[in-house]
Amino acid sequence: MTPGLIALVVALACALAGGVLWRRSNGRIRDVGRPVRGPGRQQETMPPAAAQDSDVPGWRLTSAELGGALGERATLVQFSSAFCAPCRATRRILTDVANMVEGVEYVEVDAETHLDLVRRLNVLRTPTVLVTDGSGRIVKRASGQPRKPDVIAAVGRAVGEINPTYLTGNEGSDSGARPA
Asked: CATH assignment of 28-168?
C-alpha cells in the first residue's frame, strides 16, 4: 500500500467514526448539569441540580425573556433560525406534545434576535430544545431534532409523572410507542 492510500483509509475511518458519534448524540435529550469532559478540562454546561434549586441567575427562564407565557406544569422552549430545516420538524413535534399534556406550553425563540439569551444558555446550534418545569427551571436539554417519544418522556419527568399513553402506546398517535 502506498502512503497516500493509507492516509485515505485512515481519513475515511476517522470521518466514519465522527459521523457515527454525531448521529448518536444528535437530538438526544439529556439532563442539565452534566459535566462536559475533554482533554485536560472539566466544565459544567449548566449548574448542578442543587445550584439550580437556588436562584442562580441565568438557569431559570422567565416569560419576559422568552417572549411567551410559561406553562403552569412545563414549558418546551425551541431555539431556531430562519433557514433551519430540522427546526420545522421540531416545531411540529413540540407543538404536538404541548397539545397532548395539559399545562404544557410551547415557545419558539428566534436565536438571531435573542443573542444574549443564546450566549447565556450556551446554545451552539439550532434547533436546541429546553424543557423547563413550572417555575422556569431548565431540567432537560437537546441539541438537534429530538424524537417525539423522548420529548414526551422528558415532559413527564419535568411535571413529575410519566404519561401513561407513552408507556402503553396509542395506535392513533405517531409517538412511536408500541401498543401494550
From this structure: 3.40.30.10
Q: Return the C-alpha cell found at 140.
A: 432537560
For the whole model, what pTM was predicted?
Answer: 0.68
Instruction: Say if residue 127 is preceded by a cis peptide, omega within 30 of 0.
Output: yes
Cβ atoms of 177 and 166 within 8 Å: the answer is yes
C-alpha cell at 135: 417555575
Q: What are 67-104's pLDDT values in tens digits? A: 888 888 999 999 999 888 999 999 999 999 999 988 99
Q: Where are the domains of the chain?
A: 28-168
Q: Which three cell numbers stand for residue 132?
A: 423547563
* DSSP track, 76-120: EEEEE-TT-HHHHHHHHHHHHHHHHSTTEEEEEEETTT-HHHHHH
Mean pLDDT for the chain overall: 77
